[in-house]
Specification:
Blueprint lengths: L5 E6 L7 H14 L4 E6 L1 H4 L6 H17 L8 E4 L5 H10 L4 H5 L2 H9 L6 H15 L5 E3 L5 H18 L7 E3 L34 H9 L17 H14 L3 H7 L7 H26 L2 H30 L3
Parallel strand pairs: 1-2, 2-3, 4-5
Length: 331
């Protein structure tokens, strides 16, 4: 039997994860284990590009690990680990730095955005973290990366870096492709549909966190901005707010958008649609939130999952670094 293709993806432990993270990525990761050899990572080194209180980073790392497990990812079927527990990630990052064109990093959209938001902390890590992300991916001979639309550019950079290294030193790295779920790939803010939903958003009403209570979820959807008119129709250009709500509805209900449009074809306005959507989200998160609460009360189990996952990941990472070091003359 042919071996399954390998995928890698990571979640950053910085602040509350939200339904955009869930629909665009995390919710879809567990089923991928039926088709792929899966590696999932809590990328704690990435979180350091913005100052983190040590106790907060530790807490958020546990939260992210519990989130992966609550979303149905089985540590018996997939490797789940914490990035900083496998030193080869940083080792490969330095080597890849020496072949990554600076011009590629300077044009990264997320660097421009973060540099604008954090003018007081435009550190070298902020510019360089896409190389660490490339190392995360290339270290495991990753063939596909499940990401949100906003992360596509990072996978493209990983391909550029892999190609550059291979041209210089010989065939060493695979060039990964991205896996993106189109309809729910980019969930926007409920208060401003021109901006992506973000855990760092100053307007908390625009972001539905995975930890929000049912009443908080209902209140946020009740206050969600809408477009002019009454028609519930998917058209991101003409009706960005309603299109975003339809994508969320589809993501949580599993129904295609055209079926949802048909259901509300004769609606008098948006009120009932938003009420129904809130209940769909509350119901859709109920099982996840229950499991998350149980995992979060058992740090000993989370530590065991992280330790076992890091041991499995290290076996793969050490083997890859041996090959890389031989290619470049370090071994």
């Amino acid at each position: 039997m042919a071996s399954m293709k390998r995928i890698f993806s990571g979640v950053q432990p910085s602040g509350n994860l939200h339904i955009g993270n869930y629909l665009g990525a995390i919710k879809n990761w567990a089923p991928l284990a039926n088709e792929y050899d899966c590696i999932y990572c809590v990328v704690d080194w990435h979180a350091l590009t913005v100052f983190q209180k040590p106790e907060t980073l530790r807490e958020n790392t546990y939260n992210a690990l519990a989130t992966l497990l609550a979303a149905g990812i089985n540590p018996e079927k997939s490797i789940i680990f914490i990035q900083s527990h496998v030193k080869e990630h940083s080792e490969l990052t330095w080597i890849l730095n020496t072949v990554t064109p600076l011009s590629e990093l300077e044009k990264m959209t997320q660097f421009k955005d973060k540099a604008r938001k954090h003018k007081e902390n435009i550190n070298a890590g902020l510019l360089d973290y896409p190389v660490l992300m490339a190392a995360d991916i290339l270290l495991y001979d990753t063939e596909a990366v499940p990401v949100g639309e906003d992360q596509r550019q990072h996978v493209e950079l990983a391909r550029v870096v892999a190609r550059k290294f291979n041209n210089l030193y010989g065939e060493t790295f695979k060039e990964p492709q991205e896996i993106i779920r189109k309809e729910a790939a980019r969930i926007m803010s409920l208060s401003d549909p021109s901006r992506k939903m973000s855990k760092s958003d100053n307007d908390s009403a625009g972001c539905v966190n995975l930890s929000d209570s049912p009443d908080e979820i209902r209140d946020k959807f009740k206050k969600a901005v809408t477009d002019s008119g009454k028609e519930i129709r998917y058209s991101p250009a003409e009706k960005p707010a309603i299109s975003n709500l339809l994508a969320i509805y589809s993501g949580f209900s599993g129904k295609p958008i055209n079926e949802i449009e048909a259901k509300y074809k004769n609606a008098e306005g948006y009120a009932q649609f938003k009420l129904d959507l809130a209940e769909i989200v509350v119901s859709g998160l109920a099982d996840f939130q229950k499991k998350y609460g149980e995992f979060r009360q058992n740090n000993k189990f989370l530590d065991e999952v992280a330790k076992t996952g890091a041991e499995k990941a290290t076996l793969l990472a050490e083997k890859k670094m041996e090959a890389v070091n031989k290619r470049i003359g370090l071994a």
